[in-house]
Structures are given as C-alpha cells and as structure tokens.
Amino acid sequence: MTVTDNPTLDGEVPKGKGEHSDAEGKLSLLTYADLAEAAMRMQAGATKTKAGWENLRALIARLQGENVGVLDPTQGEAWGIKGLRLCGFQGTTAEFSMQIDPSPGISIYHGPNGSGKSTISDGIRTALSGKTGWWTDVTAPTGRSKYDPLWEKINRARDSAQSWAEVTLVRNGEELMLKCVLTDDGEVGDAYGEWRTSSGEVCTVDMGSTWRHALEGHPPVFSYAEVERRVQQSNDLQRYITNLLALGGAFTYLEALVSELSEAASASKKKIDAALKDGKARVAEVDHRFRLSEPTVEVRDISWPAITDNIEDWLTRHHLVDAASTTVEVTSADVQRLRLALSTVDAAFQKLESASALTSPRIAQHLDALYKDAVEITPRGSMCPVCNSVVDDWVEILQENVERHAVLSPIHEEACRALSELRDASVVANHVAEIIALINYSDSGRRAASATAAANAERLRAVMRFHGSRPALEVREGFLALRNSISTADWYAASGAAVEASEITRRWLRERRGALEAFLHTWRTEQEKAKESALWQETKKCASTLADKLRKERTEHFKEKADKRVRQLLEDVGIYLNGIHLTTTRAEVSVSNSSGQELQLSMLSAGQRNAFLLAPLLSTAESGPFSFLILDDPVHAFDEIRVDRLASVLVDLSSERRVIVFTHDERLKQHLLARAANGQAWRVSRDVEKGEISIESTDEMWRVLLDDARNIVTWAPRPSPTAYLTEAQVVRGLCRQAVDHALHSCVVRYSLAQRQDVTCNVSSIDAVDNTLKRVAFAEKMISQTHSGRNPIDEFNKICGHYLRGWNKAVHGADDAKANLNLEIEKAREACALITAWDFS
C-alpha cells in the first residue's frame, strides 16, 4: 500500500493510490490493515467528531486483532482451478468429471446449444459460491407476475437420485475442495470446503464472509445471459459495479458492525426514553394523589437522571433506594428516645453538680498507685512529692482524694454514658428538621422551634467531636442549649407533626418507587448501550465518510480500468466510458460516441451491451484471489470485429491466468486458437437420453502442428531455391514444437496427479532452452516420485533419436532428406503416449 503524507482538508484522504490498489494498480480486496491506515489519515475538527473517529479506529484495531492468524483462503497466492465433478446438476444426470490445466493459457470448450457447456460453467460457479443464485443476493426480476420467473434455471436434474457440484482449486502444493449438495427443490442444502495445506493439514473453510466477498468483487465465472437478465435497472447496475470495486469482506463487515452497534445503542436509548416518559407519568399520578389527600405534607419533586448518571446514586439522593425504603423518617420511638436521652444526661449532670469537685479521672489511677507506694515509705517526711512543698499531712490528703475518686467515679462514668447515648439520639433532631421542612406549616413557631433544635443539635455534635463524651464545660453548655430548645411547646407540636408526616412520606416514597420499577429495569438493562448512543451515531457518520471516500477513490480507479477495456472492445464504433457515479441505490454511467455526444445505455445494440457489461469484469479479473477466468457465451450478438477484439483481450489475460471459454461460436474458437500459443480446444456433447455430458480434445496444439506438418509433406510445391527454410526443416521444426507442447501437457497432468505446484513445474520446464534438455528435465522430474514405468522413457524409445535433428532443423541446419512421414508419425505416437499417460 502506498501511504501519502500530510492530510489536507478535514475528512480528506490525499489523492494518490491510497487504499484503492496495490503497487500494480490492482483493485485488491481491502484488509483491516488497509482500513486502519485509511482511518488514521482522516481528520476531524469538532470534539464529538474526533471521538467518533477514535471510536471507529478502536473498532478497526479490535477487528484487526481478532483476525490475526485466522485462516483466510483469499489471502496469499491466487488459486488455480484443477477440476470439476458434477452429479444430478442441471443437464447431467450421471456423474461427470473433468480435469483442467490450472497454468496460464486458453481452454476452449465448444459445442452446440444444449450440449452442457452452461451446466459445467454453472456447476463451477455454484460449487465456488455455495449457492445456486448469482454471486450477490440480487434476485431475478419478476415483473408484475406473482409467480416464479419463466426462465429461471432448474438446478437439480430431473429424476436424479442425488445432486451436487464439486470444484477443486490448487496453489503452491495446496488444494481447496469446495462442494455443495442440492435439495429436492434444487436449492443448496449443504455447502462446505476443505483446505489441504502444503503440510498436509486439512481444515474447514468458511464459505461466507471474506470468501463470499472475494467472489462478488472478483467473480471468476461470467455468464452474459445471467448478468444481462439480472442487470435490468439502475440499482441492479449499481450493485454490479459496486461489487466489482472489491471493497472486501473487512470493509463490508465493518460497515455492518458499526451500523448494528449504532442501531443497538439508539434502540436502547429509545427504550430508556420511553420508560422514562412512562415513569414520569406514573410518578406524577402518585404525587397528584398524595398532594390531594395530604396537603400538609410536601415531598420534593424528582430531578430526573441524565443518561450518564449512576442510577443507584440517583435513587439514594431521592430516597428511593428500594421499594420498602424508610430512608427519612421520624417515629414516636425516635422522639421518645431523644427525650429519654436528654433526661438521662440532665440527671447525670445534676449528680455531678451536687457532688464536690473531682480531679480529672485521667490521673485518678496514678493517684491511687502513688498512695499505695506512699504508705509503704518510712519515714514519709513532710515534703509533698506532687507540689514539692512542705505539707505535713500530705499522705492523709492523698488518701482522702483517692477515696473521694472512688465514690464519684461511677457518677462521672454515668454522665459519659448518657452523653454517648445523646450523641446518637441527637441525630434524630436533624431528621426531624428535614421532615419538618417538607411540611407546609402556617405556624412559624413550629418552624422556628425545629430550626433552633436542629442548630443546637449540630452545635452539640461539634463540641462532642472534640471532647468526646466527657462532661466538659463546652459539652454541658451545648447540652443545655439543646435541652432548652426541645423543651418548648412548639417543639413538642412540631415533633408530633413530624411523626405523622414521616409516615405519610414513607408511603409516598414507597409508591413512587413502585411506580418506577419498570423504568429502573429498563435503565439497568439498557443504560450501558444507551449512553453510547451519541458516540455510535457519530461513529456511524465517520464510517460513512470513510466509506464514501473509499468508494469514490475506487470508482475513479475502476473507471480508468473499465474504460480501457471498453475501448479495446468498442473503440472502433466510437463508444467510450466517460464516468461512473455511484450512489447507495443508483449507478449513473456516462457514455459517449466519438463526437463527444452522450449516449443512453438503451441506445446500445445487443452486442454492444454485452461488451459493455463484460468490460468491467475483464478490468478487475487480474486483481482477485483467482488465477482463472471462466466465460460462458461471452460473444452473444457479437459481430466479427467484436469477436476478434475480445479474443485479443482474453489471450492477453491468459498470459498470467487460465482463461476458460464456453462457446458455440466457431468464430471465437478460431480467433483464440489463432492468437494463443497455449490454447487447447475441447468438444462438449451430451447424451439427452442418458443425461451424460462428455468432453473430448479436438485441437490439442501438438495435433494441430503435426497435421500442419503432414499437409506440408502432402501438398508442398517444388522447393524454392530462395526459400529461407526447406520443406524438411519446416516439418521437423513443427515436430519439435509438437513435442514441446506435448511435454507441457504431460508435466501439467503429472503435477495435478501428484498434488504439486503446476505453475512452478511448468515454469521450470519452460525455462530450459532446448527440446533435448526439456525432455531430460521432464524425465528427471517424473522419476523423482513416480514409481514404475516412466512415460518419458517410452517417449525416448519412440522418437528420442529424432530430437537432435528436429532441434537443428529449427535453426536452419540438418537438411538431409529422410522419411518425413515416418518422423511425423513417430512424433504423433510419442506425443499421444505422454499426453494420455495415467499418473494416478
């Protein structure tokens, strides 16, 4: 892939090869790596657009990671076609099989209508794709009829016990067998593939996904009748051309996945919106009912959550934690507990106030220990060990203090316990204040009492956070303030109202929560996807932008390649392809004549229309994962010039791939054989009664060459003294060429039988520079693994002693007269032997 630096405008990929082609300008299938590269170069301005691109890039990276190491037959070297087997398929009831040379070249299968050519072609296509229809999911147009199309093919042969099609592909020592089995109604019931790797491992092939897109983007089988019948409208042409852009399985899957995730997030968001609307209505009904029946109680309205909110936090804030929640309440027990706690503290403080002063309890235990030590000291003296002054009776004073501490300590501990209980109970005051705030009071005294109580409760808690439960002076002052504020008539009235309001509020909140159950279920189920709705909507826009960019670039490149093929086929009649514009539903194709006047497609003749539909396919054939191209009746309505022009294109393509042509048109056969140095011709015939299709070689090139040699011997005029080559030299040169072609065919058959790389073996023998060495090379190749007789040994026994003379004759030497007819017959016998040898 060619990477261009410095992106330009927002959303633009710089012009150049970009993602549309490889180094040779081929429209290859896009991979996830290609998509990641394209997405990385896209720019965005707005924050939400940046988020969309980042999300798209992350998704592509995830898909790329998931596909690392996945076996994909569309990657790597291209597949050649080795053979076909059919049974009970279309025109053949009996089992039919054929071997195909997968190396580059031309194979022509000719025969009259009804001989089985289309059966073979359709069998290959059906086995490759695993379905009986066209490559894409487009159905044949039915017009206004509600019945099946009149000309739709019946794929299962009549009265056949079984029906299946099987094709075998090969590359670099690997083999891929694809098979589909048809049901009684002629549809594919089972389709599968087995991939035998070069190491001998066999694995199952997924005939969907990437393989399907490879077939759609680079269809290796073309049937004009099928294409013409299905491309009738602008949207049909749009699908036909869009598939040939070969955007690939990765691109299609990414588009579909983004759309799926976006739609799923939007659907979740819609569900939540609908549930929220229903929840609001239900809560409004609950609130309306309580406000009518309980006008003195007011519960705050709900502030509804945003899609990104934590629903549990939201429930807690609105006291809706669960259906049985009593989150905010004041009961009679709470009020009584607060009163009791205040009374207990008040009694403890009164005891402390009535008792004499008490030294800090913190040093009481130390004083006790000091006293126990002091009574054991003799003499004690009159110096006090605490204040270091003269006190004659300091031991007696210490004894009194210790005894007083022992009496007063329980009173002090009682006060600490009472303060601890009050500290817990004082929280209730805040609850009361919160509930009171929800009540519509006209009595300002109650409001003031509750506010004062709440403030004093907070003050007491503050000092107790510092002093703890010790009855310090600040604690006593805070207690007295709280006690006094809760001892008023207004407070008692407010407490009673709070208890009543609390019960009503609990019921109100419980019914609110019950009204929200359906909403909460939907929220919890859908929120994770729903909150990504906006992001996925933006991601979908970014994916669409990327898709438009890729389609536009590939369309431009495709147009250049298709125009080249249109010119090759139609330039003599002045028809040119000026432009292609694809939308999501239509294809707008601009065609003009030699004068620059725009033409409507409907103005094209039948032959021109055929050429126009064939050109796009021919323009992308070299880019796909298949090193073969099969054409069924490609010269429908062609004139002589069109036949010759197509033959030229096909021979050009055959230099790097196997081109297989099925035709009843003898003109195409003749033109191809005349142009192709590597052409083979086969006659196709069918026994109508038995339903058997058979093929036989009619014009193997070595036979054609030897027939030409025989004609020269028979009909050649008297030798001319000015001729460049003599009769004998020409005949022997033809014998040598025949041997070379036969050796080529022998190596192909041997490679197929031994599961070796056909293209590699053929290239190796073709690289040897003379016939003698090629024969020796073939003999060595075949003897390496083939046990028993070697056909090259038999070949040498028949005509080996002629080879040197045949080789010299090509270069103008060895003009000695001989029995040329005998040499021709020996060449024919030897070539027939090695091309018919059974290597199984």
Automatic annotation (TrEMBL):
Keyword DNA damage listed: yes
Annotated signal sequence range: none
Annotated region (Disordered), positions in chain: 1-22
GO MF term list: ATP hydrolysis activity
Domain Rad50/SbcC-type AAA: 85-133
Alphabetical keyword list: DNA damage, DNA repair, SOS response
Entry-linked InterPro entries: P-loop_NTPase, Rad50/SbcC_AAA
A Pfam family recorded for this sequence: AAA_23
Biological process terms in GO annotation: DNA synthesis involved in DNA repair; double-strand break repair; SOS response
Ranges of biased composition (kind: Basic and acidic residues): 12-22
Superkingdom, natural source: Bacteria
PANTHER family per the UniProt record, alphabetical: DNA REPLICATION AND REPAIR PROTEIN RECF
Protein name, entry field: Rad50/SbcC-type AAA domain-containing protein
UniProt lineage: Bacteria, Bacillati, Actinomycetota, Actinomycetes, Kitasatosporales
